[in-house]
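Figure 2 data, in text form.
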Amino acid sequence: MHWRLKGVVQKALGVVPGGRALHHRLQRGFGGLRRFDRELAGKVDDWAIMARHLRDAGIPIAGTRFFELGTGWYPTFPLACVLAGATRVETFDLRRHLRPELVRACVAGLHAHLGTIAAAGGASAADVATRHASIAEAMARGADLAGASDGAIRYHAPVDATRSGLPDAAVDVVFSNSVLEHVAPEAIPALFREAIRVLRAGGAMFHSVNCGDHYAYVDPALNQLHYLRYSDRGWRFWNNEFLYQNRLRAHAFPDAARDAGFAIELDTSKARPERLRQLAAMRVHPQFAGIPPERLCITTVDFLARKPG
């Protein structure tokens, strides 16, 4: 699909009555939700990466209290955390995307990934299987996500996560996966200030950020640096309710965490030769001229930030 066609369609759906429901149906029929099993497998792999980084930092999954930014369409990360023994996951979304049929599909689909969850989470395979069976049985009886997890997963939406309402020092880990690139730039510092408030002393944030042009996933003619051709004013037209992209570069996220008082313990950002070549071959808007190429070209970063204590 041509990226401009996708952009115009999503722009229209964002303003017409019933557009949100129609967008969901299109996602199920033609978008990422059509390939649910593949999408779920990718999310489990992302969760496993986070779990291993946390364990390397001395933070186990078992017994840990989590705060997720951006639940999305279905709760892969909260469920995987609880299956691996997490005490609680408070998961927040600015809009209510979670749907019961997708939650049930997620629970069912995770059965194929219990071995991955156990290995990455440092949990007993038998314990993970037992927890999964309990959740699946409860959902089959009509329980919601909180009920099926015995209150371990708490979904908050629509809620502004910069004002979560949680007590001070209430959680051990704040995390997100492919969310921060869709957050307005002015909200990032506020999110990190809230994170440092709700984290216990010595707690951590882990964020995986995909800061490349997401239109490249639907239009093979684009690379992930494509949107750097546009000014903020020019790009505003192509941003929409369903695919907002802030275009912040990878270094901006750990930098904002430092400004909020965190110490950065992990930063995977790296300039890839392929991206440097793509950047050299394209016209970049002058507003990005002050960013060195080896920073401008980076399109992904995982980082772990520690609250002092």
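Caption note: The CA atoms of residues 222 and 246 lie 18 Å apart.
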